[in-house]
Amino acid sequence: MIDIRDLRDDPDRVRTSQQARGEDSSVVDQVLSADETHRRALAEFETARAEQKAFGKKVAQAQGEEKQSLLAQVKDLAARVKSLDAQAQEAATAREEGMRRIGNVVMDGVPVGGEDDFVTLEEVGTPRDFAAEGFEPRDHLALGEALGAIDMARGAKVSGARFYYLLGDGARLEQALMGLAQQMAQEEGFVPAIVPNLVRPETMAGAGFLDAHADEVYRLEADDLYLIGTSEVALAGLHADEILDLSDGPLRYAATSTCYRREAGSYGKDTKGIFRCTSSPRPRCSSTAGSRTPSPSTRTCSGSSGACWTPSSCPTGSSTSPRATSAVRRPVSSTARPGCRRRGSTAS
Fold this sequence. Notes:
With 348 residues, this protein is α+β, with helices and mostly antiparallel strands. It has helices at residues 4-9, 11-20, 26-61, 64-99, 130-133, 140-146, 152-159, 169-187, 201-206, 231-236; strands at 120-124, 150-151, 165-166, 191-194, 198-199, 218-220, 225-227, 253-256, 298-303, 306-311, 317-320. The chain is built from ten helices and eleven strands.
């Protein structure tokens, strides 16, 4: 979430950033108004509270009619203190709710686009012309089911639509890929992490999931906890309410977790198969969706939700620039196959 001080310092830039993502820029003015109301009410509350304490000492020393007069004033002052406190809290709540609707500032030069509108920065190798070869490639789901590695039918039988089993080599492949990803991330300076699957409301809210995306999350009412939809939620809360020393550079974590989300609003879309690729970005930086320049042995392939590292042997692929429409406070799901966004390189 953007810092309120940055919003005060340069509201026009934040408005432009909101507009670039196709989001409501009027929320900036709403937040600034709520912030001004909060600061004014808080200052008045603190002044009235100090006056109330001073009156308390006078009342203790007064007698007779003077004391009765002071008690009446104390009563009125107490009501004013209570009202100002309520105003300050109400304004603070409105400010925080509005702040969660504002994404990190999109850096200059980031193109605006939709799911099918991205800018290709680089293509590696030459895509195969399967039509010319008379070969029809199959997607990862068809291959996985043919090999007995993925079982969607039994997943739906046991748990409903969009659930699946990974069996045999499919299970081993996922474990190997997870291990490889963690190893590569660690080599790039990230700290591997396995995070809690349940978080408190303030952590879920801080990651941007309890406003526009509240209908996508699962809540355990009896415990007032939420199931995470991505490991970034738990990572976002890892250092909450801490003062960090970043003199030696940013703290970097790479996490894996089970992800629970309803995918509300995606029904009917072409989402066949199993996939998920997300990136947790650095604060105040939306140009790279949190990626960093990889070593020569790796290649960054940016899908619609961030950046994935893939080995240099990744088949013919193209790296694409992140888009302003992928708000960094709330990464969206990727429709790319695991590994990287590929063109004409589906394995058979």
